[in-house]
Amino acid sequence: MKTAIIYSDELKNYDFGPGHPFRGDRFASFFQLYEEKLGKNKNFQLIKNREPASDEELKFWHTQEYIQVVGAASSGITIPHLYQFISQDNVNPISGKFPQDIERAARIIVRNSILALDFVQEKRSEKAVNIGGGLHHAKSGYGEGFCIYNDVVIAARYARKKYNLKRILILDTDAHAGNGTCEAFYSDPNVLFIDLHQGGIYPGTGFIDEIGQGRGEGFTINLPLAAATGNKSYELIFDEIIVPLAKEYKPEIVIRYGGSDPHPSDQITQLGLTLEGFKMIGSKVREISRLCENKSVDLICSGYKPDVLSKAWLSLITGLANVEVELEEPLLETKEGQNLAKTKELIRRVKENLKPHWKSMNN
Fold it and tell me: Where do runs of H (alpha helix) occur along 170-301?
C-alpha cells in the first residue's frame, strides 16, 4: 500500500518573513529534492489539499478568543494586546507584525494532519505524511516557538472523537521539547507521549521527572538529551525505552513528528543525528507501527539549515516507507562516544521513574 504525502501549495505562506529562522521556501526546497529522488517511485502518492481547518476543528485544542485574535491579526487588523496571545518569535522580526496570510496556511496544516489521520484510519494508506505538520509548541490560547495552531493535539483529539481511539502513541523527535502537546495530554492516559529533545534549550520544559499527573501519571516520558547526542544514543533509547513501552502499551495508531533540527549542523540546536540516524528513526517508527496494523502518521516541518533540511525530511520518509535512496551527508563533526555514557545514565534514570507504571521498565 502506498505512503500518502499530503501537502498544499499554500504552505509557502507559513512564513514569518526575512531574518526569521522559519521561512516558507523550505517546502518548495523539499519537494524539489523529493521529485529528484522519489518522483517516479510508485510507493508514494502525493495528495494536494486546498481546504483549511474549520473553527470547530481548531477548537479541539484552541480557545475561540485565540482563534479570533490570530485570524484578525493575520488579516492586517492591529491588535493592541497581541502579545497576550503570541510570543515575539511568532512575528516578522523586521516589522514586528503578525504575517498576513499565515493564519490560513496554519489552518491548512491542521487540516492536512486531520487528512493524514483519515487516510490511515480509513485504510486508504497504511502510512501518511503531512509536510508542514508538527507545530507542537502552540498552547490552547497562546502561540509560540514558530507554532500558531497545534495540529498534533488537534489530530489526536480528532482521532479520539471520530474513531474512538483509546491508545494513541505520540512520539516527538523534534530537537525542542513539545510543551504544547505535553500540556494537552499531561493528565490523559489515552495518549502515551514520548519526547526526545535537547535538554536545557527552548522552551525550558521536558525534564525527566515530568511524567504526567493524575490518571495520566506515567504516560508522559521525557528524554532530555545532552548536546551532540547522536545515532547510537538515539537507537539505544528506542531499543531500551520506546519500543518496549510501545509493545506494552499496544497503540492503536502512532503519530510521530519532528524535522531536521537534531542534525549537528542545524543553526539553533546542538544535537548529533546524521541522515542515517533520521532514516533509523523512520525505520523504528515503521517497526512500532506493526503493533497497530502498520498505521502511522508522520508530521514534518522543523529544521533551520536549508541544505540539510530537505535531506533529513526525505531520510525520515524513506525509513518509514522502507525505500532506499542515496543522499550525500553534509560535512559534519560528531562526538558520539563521549555521550553514550550520558545516554545510558539517562535511560537508567528514566526507567527508574517509570518502574511503578510499566512492567517493561523493570528490566
Answer: 179-185, 231-237, 243-249, 275-289
Confirm if 297 and 128 have CB atoms less than 8 A apart: yes
pLDDT digits (tens, 9 = 90+) for 252-302: 999 999 999 999 999 899 999 999 999 999 999 999 999 999 999 999 999
**Residues carrying an active site annotation:** 137
Q: pLDDT, tens digit, for every residue of 52-78?
A: 999 999 999 999 999 999 999 999 999
Task: Give CATH for domain 3-362.
Answer: 3.40.800.20
Q: Is the pLDDT of residue 329 over 70?
A: yes
Domain spans of the chain?
3-362
In degrees and rounded to multiples of 5, residue 91 shows phi and psi of -125, 165
Alpha-helix runs per DSSP H in the chain: 25-38, 55-58, 64-74, 102-121, 151-163, 179-185, 231-237, 243-249, 275-289, 306-321, 336-354
Residue with cell 528513526: 281
